[in-house]
Structures are given as C-alpha cells and as structure tokens.
Amino acid sequence: MSQGQSMKVTCQVVEGDGPIRIHWRYQGRPISAAARVSVVSLGEDAVILGISAVQAEHAGEYACVAQNLAGQHHHASMLAVDGPIMPFSFGEESINAGDFVSTQCSIIKGDSPISIAWYFNSSEIESTDQITVSKIGKKGSALTIDATRAVHMGEYTCVAKNAAGSTNFTTYLHINVLPQIVPFSFGDEIPNAGELASLQCSVIKGDSPITLGWLFNGTEIESTDDTTISKIGRKISSLSIESVHASHVGEYTCVAKNAAGATNYSAFLQVNVLPQIIPFTFGDEIPNVGELASLQCSVIKGDSPISISWLFNGTELESSDEIVISKISRKVSALTIESVHASHIGEYTCLAKNAAGATNYSALLHVNVLPQIAPFTFGDESLNAGELVTATCSITKGDSPISISWFFNTSEIESGDGDVVISKISKKVSALTIESARANHMGEYTCVAKNAAGASNFSTSLHVNG
User: Fold this and answer.
1) Where are the domains of the chain?
2) Which of the listed residues 68, 136, 184, 352 has the most CB atoms within 10 Å of its CB?
C-alpha cells in the first residue's frame, strides 16, 4: 500500500457465545483510536479498524482478538507500506517462555553504504549469549533469541542509516510468561493431630487467564468435608485442613497453568501423631498371691521420640524390688511383678507421650488373696468339766467364696459330732461350741479357711480341769 492511501478492515465474529469482547493489536500491543487511526464498534460482533492516511510507521502486523468466557481467538494480517524498510514481526503464533524466535530487517530502498542496528526498548542491542544479531548481506540484519523469557518482552526497533539520514521500523514481542508461584509452607511448627493446617498459593507473574489446582501426593484433589480449597481472586488459591490426622501427611502441590504452560510448587505436611497403644491385660486367669504378673505396653503408631511410663492407681511407678519396669525398645515397655500380693491390686496405666500429646491405656490387676484368720482362743482361764466352751473363727481378708472348716487333732469335725456344734455365722465367720466340756475334749482345735488362692489355718488348744 502506498503512503497517503486510506485503509479500512472489519473484524467480525461469526460464532461464539456472548458476551464477546473484540479488540485490535498492532505488533502485539493493544491499539486504540489515535492520529489517523480509528477503531469503531459495530455492535457486539464486529469492530472496524481504519487509517485515514497510511504512513510508513503504520506498516506491520495487525491482529483482531475476540474473547469470551470459553477463551480467545485471533487473526492477524501484515500491512505493507512502501518505504525503505520491509515490515517485519515475530510471527502470528503466540510465543511461550523458552521458545525460539527470530525476525529479519531488510532494506529495500536507500543508497549504500547502509548501517543497520537493533534497539530494545530504546537501548541498542549487541550480540550476547541470549540474543544474536547477524548481518545478512549489505542490506539485511537478523535478530534471534534462542530461549525467550519475560525480560525479552518489549519493543524491538531496526534502525537503518546512510548519508541521507535514518529510518526505522518497530515491532513488539509478546511472550506468554509461565506462572510464577510464591514459595509457601505449612510453617515452622509441625501441627499436632486435630489442629488446623493451611497453605496459600499466590501467582505473582504470568499471563492471564491462569488456572490453579491442587495435588496430594500427585493426585488431584478437590474440596471435601475435611479439606477446603478456596479461590481468592484470579491468582490466589488457599487450601485448609480443619483437623489434621495421620492420613493427611504427604506432599501438597499447587499447579498453575496458562497458555505458556504449567508450573508448580510443593510443600510437605508432617503431622505430630498421638501415640496409639495396643490394648493389654493381665490375662484371663486371676493370679494367686505369690505368682507372677506382667504387662507389655506396645506403641504401634505415633511420631518419635516417644516416652513411655507406668502409673499405679494414678501415681507414677519406678522399678523396685517388687516391680520391675523394662524398656524393650523405643516403643515397647514391660512391667513385671515377680510375686503378687494384696498390695499390688489396682489399676496399672501405661502412659505414652510425644510432641502431639499423650495417650494411655489401663489394666486392672486382681489377686486371689489367701484368707486371713483373726487369732482366737478358748479364753484365758482354765475350763472346768461340764462348762460351756466356744471359739469364733473370723476371716478378715481374702477373696470370696471362702469355705471354713474345723479340725480336732487333725481330724475334721462335722457339726453334730457328739456334743460339738459348728455354726455358720456369716460368709466369713464360723463358731465352734461345746455344751459340756469333758476330758476327752482336750486337744488342738484348728480353723481352716480356703479360697481360690489357697488355704490358711489357725489353731488353739483346749485344756479342761478334771
């Protein structure tokens, strides 16, 4: 197109759900009405771009971009204007960070010698490891970027000079920049089971639109009853776990995606899990006095280090001559009573502690205690023949049921044998009565008490004056 001519082009959308936004870009940058340039909207579906008097500086790539909720689409066309520099651009396709790009500046008019230089945002460019400027014959120059980054985005200008003066042409390089996520963590303190844990994923760089998602150990997750994912604006997503447990331990990854690709950042959640103790008992059989009793406390879950201690009826225990506490391993402790007695009856508790807190488990020790007989006699005074004689056998200790029997000189006495009467006063008291003592009643009388733990006895002698 020759300089001075007018130009109009209409961009019309033929398909797509509303609302639709249409705008024009020149050399990759948004344009609006300016001197000799007009942008006129024809309803929602069409926009006209017009230039009343085309000049050399109008040459370049014009793109119409249509956008709705589903995404965007564009179409580009090059406007060539008769002039000393052939219009150039970095191409119609979107350029992502890391892509290779190049463009060429060709001088089609002008007397030699001609010098060609490149400028980036008004600063002259020289070849570096990242950007290469190459001479192509006497009237051409190429600019190449091996791997684009966000810092390369901007205006690139080719300036051609000869004895008559200088001319230039500018194009804009737009790069789809990958999202950049602000590093995050669950904090310096490891949460305990039951506490809250949260993360916030914030994208500080990257072209919109950006989608954010979360992974747990590599698997995509969404909001559940115990994990809440919330969108805060277009570039922030938060993840909250109201009450953490062992099942929540693992790697949480925020994934941010846009047209340039995807980036991610991960944080590991460690939870201080309370110790879990395997239930234990002293066994099904109740031990008798003098027998051995033992317990083993094993912690199968919980973060180390774990301390294990024992309590007896709520009071902390330490090893003694009677009770031995042994550390089997870091998570196992044993309690042993070599010879149980009535004083050992009670509640034994294993207490396991770690950074998350403390748990405990208890077992009750019951001991079959031998009967204990209160001492008795037939009295301090000697008895005369024909007098009434009585003795009472009382059990002061011992587990029920208890059976009580009487012996005379090692022979068991049955109630009603002759004139000797045995009476059951209660479950733990028995009385022996002789209505009329005689010489043949003299001897040793023994009360024998028996229960599941064994038998005990007490004896006293009867003396009758003849």
Assistant:
1) 1-82, 180-269, 276-365, 372-465
2) 352
